[in-house]
Recover the amino acids of this structure.
């Protein structure tokens, strides 16, 4: 029998109040969705920095801006920092979303169909990027996908079959 407890970085999440849970979601968990959910009025750089706005410390925000630029450069978007989402391709928008999910150096990255809206080449590139960042950033990566090609690239695969989790 399981206790029903969920821990992240040794913290029992069931013992946290709403403010502390919000802080965990913002600082320790990164989210990447099939649809990037970028703010259309903000540049790529500004979109990446949105999760850092809750931190009131100016030095931390400056450090985040430096990190954002480095990560955007790492994903091939150095020349696109000041472009708005409407000026970016689908693959570029999804890379901005991945960087946004990583900006606060989360312990856990949850990706829901991150390649679902991309063409094959962009999907392959994004999958490779996720795997590289998983290793480089030492972040636990959980990907939910219907794409067999993406699933095969993961270190471990668990399939939901007839309502049961099955390890492959």
């Amino acid at each position: 029998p399981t206790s029903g407890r969920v821990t992240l970085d040794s913290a029992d999440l069931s013992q946290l109040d709403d403010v502390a849970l919000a802080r965990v979601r913002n600082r320790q968990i990164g989210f990447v969705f099939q649809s990037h959910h970028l703010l259309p009025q903000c540049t790529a750089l500004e979109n990446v920095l949105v999760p850092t706005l809750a931190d009131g410390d100016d030095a931390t925000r400056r450090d985040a801006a430096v990190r954002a630029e480095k990560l955007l450069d790492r994903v091939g978007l150095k020349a696109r920092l000041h472009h708005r989402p409407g000026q970016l391709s689908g693959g570029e928008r999804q890379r901005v979303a991945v960087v946004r999910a990583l900006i606060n150096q989360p312990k856990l990255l949850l990706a829901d169909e991150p390649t679902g809206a991309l063409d094959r080449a962009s999907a392959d590139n994004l999958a490779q990027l996720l795997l590289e960042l998983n290793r480089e950033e030492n972040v636990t990566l959980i990907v939910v996908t219907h794409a067999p090609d993406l699933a095969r690239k993961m270190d471990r695969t668990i399939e939901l079959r007839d309502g049961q989790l099955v390890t492959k």
Observations:
- The first strand starts at residue 7 and ends at 8.
- Residues 58-74 form the longest helix (17 residues).
- The mean pLDDT is 88.
